[in-house]
User: Fold these one by one.
Assistant:
Number 1:
Amino acid sequence: MVRRPHPPADPRHARLIEGLKAQGVTDAAVLNAIATTPRDLFTPELFQERAFEDQALPIACGQTISQPYIVGMMTQALRIEKRSRVLEIGTGSGYQTTILSKLSRLVYSVERYRTLMSAAEDRFRQLGLTNVITRFGDGGQGWPEQAPFDRVMVTAAAPDVPRALLAQLKPNGVLVAPVGRGPVQDLNRYVGDGEDGFTVETLAEVRFVPLLDGVAKDS
Ligand code: SAH
């Protein structure tokens, strides 16, 4: 039996979900994951009042928590299955990670700022998530020890999709990433053809912070 998701108790959160549906986030499991994830927990004190607006917001280390519509659209585009092992690059606040964790078997998430990583880990503990594994490191290198992955989501923009990440995808896997040099990038989806190749589609235009090389010093 598929249970009908309850609308969130907070009316601002319920309105946010209605807005996502209207914009084309229609996958019930994705909507349910967003509806059961308290975005205020991931939002800095200063922006609490805006936690349920459909906007990206600043977090520590000059980074951002993604816009809920973009999170919904990218998660839907990834076509996650319950058994999927997912690699996420750019943990940030941990908001997107939490949504992925509700839809998949295991999430491996890499972040280059220690500060962000440990704040996100605290949130995962608070929410009782048991299927998220984090790593401080350069996500451009992926996570070779745990590869291959069924799904890869990149939440920072690179001029080209990192080869290491495509190489760590299973033959029928799916990778979603913002790709481009400027402030506006293409959101691309790479779908494995079962052998060594991929088909690539551009799904939307997006604005992400850059994927930077190496780990942040004094972070
Ligand atoms: N999905 C996050 C948004 C993250 S913003 C959220 O919902 O909160 C992008 C994140 O990618 C930032 O935290 C940034 O520090 C991280 N990042 C950038 N380059 C990286 C790299 N090479 N390896 C790992 N993380 C990286």
Note: The mean pLDDT is 96.
Number 2:
Amino acid sequence: MAGAKVLTKKTPEDFAKMEIAGRCVAAVHDAVRAAIAPGVTTAALEAIGAEVVRDHGCRPSFLGYHGFPATICTSPNRAIVHGIPGDYVLRDGDIISIDAGAIYEGWHGDAAFTAAVGDVADEVQKLIDVTEEALWNGLRQARVGKRLGDIGYAVEATAEPHGFGVVREYVGHGIGQQMHESPNIPNYGTPGRGLKIKTGMALALEPMFNLGGAETTMLADDWTVVTADGSFSAHFEHTVLITKDGPLVSTLQEPLRL
Ligand code: MG
């Protein structure tokens, strides 16, 4: 999902609105996570997500974004990101990535997670766990005095000992009054290099790791990005606000200060 790129400095008032959007996204995650089970369709997960966004007085970020037809992205198994909810029925042994964004008074929150459906192979659970760990390792670098290369390096280094493919074509991003703002935040990098992190930034970090190679391809729907080799893929994302009091992960029911 490419968007217009702007880099704006947010005020504490802006951040307060982004916290409300973030709390909405967290509520979507919780409701959808609770519904994930064998036999459930991705369309049913979409209905749950859409209802939660409405109930929070927010609007969905994704619906209509470059024509995307849903409130959440549902990306099973080999799908990395941007899967469209529909008639796919979750099966025991699947994994499913859920990405959700919400807008409150014009300000966005954006976050994603991957969950196992029933019992999954040990290596698949490891993929999920390590991708989530990589997100948190990246978030811990998202502070004033660090650079984007520190984030990317922390994420990539988490995958490396496991041999997971680190997706390079799709990256994290700045976020604010647009879902996708500057800068791009790659899941690879060199420590001490790249843009300096400053107070007033809002960043969406989103590692995507594959059980096999890093290469991706696009399905015929022109949305769903999948692994080229058919291996399973995991995706975790949070929005982090660089406040004057330090980084604040906003896409949680209780925002977390790092
Ligand atoms: Mg995102």
Note: The first helix runs from residue 12 to 35.
Number 3:
Amino acid sequence: MRYRASFMDAVAGMALLDAGGRLLAVNRAFEAAFGYPDGVLAGTDLRDLLPPDVAGQALREFGGLWLSVSAIRAAAGMGEAAGATVETAWPFLRADGEKRWMQQSLRILPGEAGHPPCALLQVTPLEGGNGRAGRDPATRDEERMTQTAFHDVLTGLPNRVLLLDRVESALKRARRHDHYRFAVLFLDIDRFKVVNESLGHRAGDELLRLFSDRVLPCLREVDTPARCGGDEFAVLLDDVEDTAEVGTIVERIQDALRTPFPVHDTEVYMAASIGVVVRARQYASAEDILRDADLAMFRAKESGKGRYELFDEDVPSAVPDKLRRENELRRAMERGEIELYFQPVVSLRTARITGLEALVRWNHPDLGLLSPSEFIPLAEESGLIYHLDRHVLELGCASVRALRERAGPAAEFALNLNISARSFRRWNMVESYSSVILESGCNPLDVRLEITESLLLTGVDAVTDKLWKFKELGVSLVLDDFGTGYSSLNYLRQFPMDMIKVDKSFTSRVHEEKAAYGIVQSIVSLGRGLGLGVVAEGIEQSEQAEVLLELGCLYGQGFLYSRPLPFERTVKLLERHCSLPLSAG
Ligand code: C2E
Ligand code: CA
Ligand code: CA
């Protein structure tokens, strides 16, 4: 009973709630804070104390807290594990109908003596009244409290309430200015639940912080990011030019998320599904915009993880060009418009073929044969590259088999296939790509994967791991465009490469420029020192080949020997077993 008296007379406003949000007991300070006379609030509902526009979200948060605490208790064998105290940030509704910001904390108390657990809500009214129009906004305390009232404690980001307020202001501005445009993104982390459950809630919290750190630099200064609760985030993109600009920002976010997140001693891959409302200015309320962005997010999630979706799909003009071309490329794969050309790799000494590099082409029904530079960048931006590279790998493996059948087992060649660094970052790429190779029935020893240096700059351990898995299959690895990246030399030692390729930009000047000569010289000696094969690409003149050979580079490819050729012509070349170019052979 002493307990009860101190509860009733406490200076802090306190209420006990059940899991459904019903107020089981409230003290005097609590009722006073809301402007109610003594003894009327007990038995009422938390919902009655919240403004309608935040009630839903607040109750969801409340329910979520309840669940997470009961889960912890269950895991702890129903011990006395009292829940952690969380700071909440909801505005309340006073008896007189005025919105009131309070500093609040919420804590789940274990049930005692046959009573179910309950929640203790403690509130402290903010001095100066309604938060935004406080009388003395300069005082530090109030700033701090407003900070907790408007911001998410975990990430420090604005919360949903503040975001809605900003979106509301944007709507007002749109009504005044014809040319002002803004957009809203709704982000939901894919598979967050799994991570949270398998690594624990502390790691989950850490991930949410890392996630927000990763997203922030993708935004412009004028944008407002917010955490809406759980693993949901939203962003107000203020003052945007057009849909393409929105698309660029969204893709930047998805790009930024491709690098794994370091949590504990592991790396976690996290993608987000993003819903986008681009025509936000047409809406009547901020809530409606957020609802539609949320809906679009769901559609994005349904169509596969790590994707984004625009809400205005029924307005064709709103579909950005990029998305249309992305779909076109997707269909191109299904329709067999993606083809491989093959460029021979030769021994510089004998000019005989020792290998082939597969180079992708898009045989476009209207535009004709498109080279990779016309569609690879688009594929990389949209994430489609992963599927494109997998498709190319399928075609490549089938070609290896066909070439073997036609050219005979004695024909000396392996097929090099280019894999974009971005495809490599996909979490299940090793499994997926390995199964392509294994199921194709070609000999993995005939397959070489070409990757560029940029791959080696991210998540070194994860990358090494993936590379080794391919090596274990029997596949060889080639480092492409060597020398054009950053600190390749240091990395090279750590990765299980078999071969490096001297970039065209050096080959083309090796015979006439000291600097290029020096660079090629050191690449060759480095490669040979590490026991790697060295291939020079882009050889167009015989002087270049001579200098390269002199420097100890034994293999090369380039227009001097052959341009990339379609399959049938490649077969003919292999069948002849002769030196290149044919005219000279
Ligand atoms: P890369 O891997 O460095 O391929 C070599 C490029 O140089 C090819 O261009 C080839 O046609 C061109 N080339 C070869 N010999 C010479 C020469 O003597 N002189 C000149 N000027 N160029 C020469 P292509 O086929 O347009 O491919 C461009 C890039 O597209 C490739 O550069 C590669 O990074 C990318 N790519 C090609 N196929 C694929 C693919 O299947 N997947 C991915 N991810 N990327 C690919
Ligand atoms: Ca290549
Ligand atoms: Ca290259």
Note: The domain at 160-317 is CATH 3.30.70.270 (Alpha-Beta Plaits).
Number 4:
Amino acid sequence: MQSAVTVLGLGPMGRCLARAFLDAGLSVTVWNRTPGRDRELVERGAFGAASADGAVAASPLTVICVVNYDASDAVLRTEPVTRALKGRTLVNLSADTPGRARDTGDWAERHGIRYLDGAIMTPTTTIGTPASVYIHSGPEDLYAEHRAVLEALGGTHTHLGEDVGRAAAYDIALLDVFWTAMAGYAHAVAIARAEGISARELAPFAQGIATILPPLFEEMAAEFDDGGFSGEGNPLTSGLSTMTHVVHASQEHGIDAGVMRAIEATARRTVELGHGTDGYIRVAEVLGRRA
Ligand code: NDP
């Protein structure tokens, strides 16, 4: 396994990545736009580069992890950094859209930079542990070449295919699940408090709801892929009625019901299109119809 890696971007995530590489015994060079964020890493043995191009030149593999691709462009698409990357491998673990990932792949190809895209699916606390999850996409042989270094971060690494935008596509879909669930939870604890129920009291029941979801995801995935949409036992009309209860209860407490209203509106439209006896996942098919 090659022994040197550069990490660009030392926010909470970038610092954890660099720390995990150090703990795995790699020679680690770090750089961040705002100086001073490398102090603890340098104390642990990292080399703190004075410039991004200097950091890139120190290793065959550079991992960048910044807030988004506007930020990674600001770091990478400037000389002498682009020149320093020529012939080296760049892995972008920042989050953004599949389109931005593919655009970065095109830019990298034009500049002779070997490029892999990726995303981190778990919080900073998991990095370097078996609980961390990473997804990657781009040329298979390039991934195979750097796999051992990437796996030094611990956890599960999955290469999702040669299309460089594929990791970001999974990331976006999974962020969609995560943030809508988080928004539902935030709204639920607001309603519960208005009803005199603490978040702690609600928590075990909320966890119970969460455990219902994994088997439902699997069931609905098969229905969606195969176009079955069976609403037997739980037709959309019945679900829609319970969504309306949440909107009404929110209104009674003067709590913003915007998120649930949006959810209710997509379900109502699906019913109005004649799918009231179908299962909930018919909504996804309707959402995906081109106007
Ligand atoms: P942030 O998303 O806040 O990113 C902070 C980093 O971005 C810092 O290094 C910051 O530099 C840099 N940055 C921001 N704007 C610019 C710019 N214009 N030019 C150069 N650098 C810039 O924090 P995280 O480190 O937590 O996240 C990094 C990435 O990891 C994000 O894409 C995030 O979505 C992803 N991620 C994070 C998780 C987490 O739990 N934190 C979990 C999974 C993924 P400076 O210090 O100079 O401001």
Note: The pocket of NDP is lined by residues 9-14, 32-34, 37, 65-68, 71, 74-75, 94-95, 120, 123-124 (CB under 6 Å).
